[in-house]
Amino acid sequence: MTEDTTPSVEEIKARLKVEVPVEEEEVTKADVKNPDLTEELREFGKQFADTIRTAWNSAERQRLETELRDGMRSFADEVDKAIQEIKKSPAADRVKTEAVHVREKVQSSDVSHKARVGVAQGLQVLSEQLAKLAERFTPAEKPVPGSEEANE
Predict the structure, then answer these.
(1) pLDDT tens by residue, 99-122
(2) What's the domain count of the chain?
(3) 22 near 11, Cβ under 8 Å?
């Protein structure tokens, strides 16, 4: 048995080898009040908010945040360093020049116009299909049969 564990009545009786009378209180329905769910939910909400505040303000969370910030800075510095090295390479100059040529060709050709038209048509079809799907979830109200006769 560990120090943190509270022994049961039976364990204490066994250790002492003495009969210890234990009065057990009988709880009746009359003793139990109807719980106020609103109040219980309010108290639960308060406790939940306090727990979140305590966790947020904890030294462990602050240490983790600092560690994450430092790690992200290191990551960004390494990526920036690699980008700067790549920008200085002759291969980067060639890629940049080729990208400019491709962009000019696309802009001068009919490809960009066709792509725009295709995307617009695709979005239009998707919109129509979503509208049909929405109609399935919210059917139009239909008169209840026999309700007109009841109103006369």
Answers:
(1) 888 888 777 777 667 878 888 898
(2) 1
(3) no
Range of the domain at 111: 90-137
Q: Is 130 among the domain residues?
A: yes
* Strand residues in the chain grouped as ranges (E): none
* Complete DSSP assignment for the chain: --TTSPPPHHHHHHHHTS----PPPPP-TTTSPPP-HHHHHHHHHHHHHHHHHHHHTSHHHHHHHHHHHHHHHHHHHHHHHHHHHHHTSHHHHHHHHHHHHHHHHHHHSSHHHHHHHHHHHHHHHHHHHHHHHHHHHSPPP-PPTTHHHHH-
Residues 6+ apart with CB under 8 A from 7: 1, 15
Domain membership of residue 10 (yes or no) is no
CA distance 104 to 8: 84
- Residue range 93-105, pLDDT digits in tens: 888 888 888 888 7
